[in-house]
Specification:
Number of helices: 8
Strand content: 5-15%
Distance between the termini: 42 Å
CATH architecture: 3-Layer(aba) Sandwich
Largest sheet: 7 strands, parallel
CATH class: Alpha Beta
CATH topology: Rossmann fold
Order of helices and strands: EHEHEHEHEHEHEHH
Helix content: 40-55%
Strand order of the largest sheet: 3-2-1-4-5-6-7
CATH superfamily: NAD(P)-binding Rossmann-like Domain
Radius of gyration: 18 Å
Structural class: alpha/beta
Number of domains: 1
Shape: globular
Length: 271
C-alpha cells in the first residue's frame, strides 16, 4: 500500500547521499512533503530531481549540522514556514576508520560533535513545536556500532551508544506528548560512508571498495524505515545477516564475539 506518509512533513538531514538519499526518494513516493538538508546544495538538487514518486513538495535547506548559528537558523526557518513538523530524521553523520591509539583528541571531538551533539541540538530546537502540537517523531540513524564494539570505530561506537541512551530516555519523558523516537540500527547498506570516514589525523579515508557493491540498497533500507515510522517502532534492525549474527553472538557467547571482532580487526587492517 502506497502513500503511507501522505500529509506528513518530514525533515531529513544528511539527505544528499546514501541512506538519507534513499529515505528522500522513498518517503516522497509515499506521499510525504520533504525538507532536505545537507552541506552540498548541488547534491540536494540532484536528489530533489529524483523525487518523482508523488506530487508532494520537496524543499531544500542546505546547512552544516555542526555550525551552531546555521543550525539554529535552519530550525527557525522550518518552524516559521511549516505549521507542523511530523518527523525529524537525524541522519547526518560521519564515520571513523582509525584505531583508538592513533586517533587525535580533536578528531574524537569532531566525531562526537557530528554524530551526537548535532542531532541532539537539532532535536532540542524542534522539540517545543512537537510538544505544542502534541505529536511528533524523531528518527535517528544509529548502527550496530551503537549496540556493540566494532574495531577501528571507538569514537563512532561511543557516539552511537550515546544516541541510544539519549533517545530511549527522551521517548519515556514525552510519552504523554505522543512523541515517538525510533533508532535505526543499520549495517551493510550500500553507500560511500567509508570513503568519507575520518582517519586518526582527521583526513578522509578515501576511496574504498568495502560495502559499495554489496549489502542492502539505500532504498530497501528506507522501505523498512517507512514501516518503522508508521508503526512508531522504538528500534529497528536493518542489517545484513553477518551483522545480525554478530549482535546475537555478543549476548550468547561474549568470548566468541571478542574473537570474531578481533578477526574483523585484522581484516580491516589489510584494507
Amino acid at each position: 500500500m502506497k502513500n503511507r506518509l501522505q500529509g506528513q512533513t518530514i525533515w531529513i538531514t544528511g539527505a544528499s547521499s546514501g541512506v538519507g538519499e534513499g529515505m528522500a526518494t522513498v518517503f516522497h513516493r509515499e506521499g510525504a512533503e520533504l525538507i532536505l538538508s545537507a552541506r552540498r546544495e548541488a547534491e540536494l538538487e540532484r536528489v530533489k530531481e529524483d523525487c518523482t514518486g508523488s506530487s508532494a513538495p520537496v524543499h531544500l535547506l542546505p546547512f552544516d549540522v555542526i555550525d551552531e548559528s546555521a543550525r539554529e537558523a535552519a530550525a527557525a526557518e522550518v518552524l516559521q514556514r511549516f505549521p507542523r513538523l511530523d518527523v525529524l530524521v537525524n541522519n547526518a553523520g560521519i564515520g571513523q576508520r582509525s584505531l583508538a591509539k592513533d586517533t587525535q583528541l580533536e578528531v574524537e571531538r569532531r566525531i562526537m560533535e557530528v554524530d551526537y551533539f548535532a542531532p541532539v541540538a537539532l532535536t532540542k530546537l524542534v522539540l517545543p513545536r512537537m510538544i505544542e502540537q502534541q505529536s511528533g517523531h524523531f528518527v535517528v540513524t544509529s548502527s550496530v556500532a551503537g549496540k556493540h564494539a566494532v574495531p577501528y570505530h571507538t569514537t563512532y561506537c561511543a557516539a552511537k551508544h550515546a544516541l541510544h541512551g539519549y533517545y530511549d530516555t527522551l521517548r519515556i519523558e514525552h510519552l504523554k506528548d505522543n512523541i515517538a523516537c525510533t533508532l535505526l540500527v543499520i549495517a551493510g547498506i550500500k553507500s560511500n560512508v567509508f570513503e568519507h570516514a575520518l582517519t586518526g589525523d582527521g583526513s578522509e579515508y578515501g576511496e574504498s571498495t568495502w560495502n559499495n557493491d554489496s549489502g542492502m540498497t539505500a532504498e530497501a533500507c528506507a522501505e523498512r524505515v517507512v514501516e518503522a515510522i508508521v508503526n512508531r517502532e522504538d528500534e529497528v534492525v536493518i542489517s545484513i545477516e553477518e551483522a545480525r549474527q554478530a549482535m546475537l553472538l555478543r549476548d550468547k557467547d561474549p568470548e566468541a564475539f571478542k574473537q570474531r571482532m578481533a578477526s574483523m580487526m585484522e581484516w580491516l587492517a589489510k584494507g
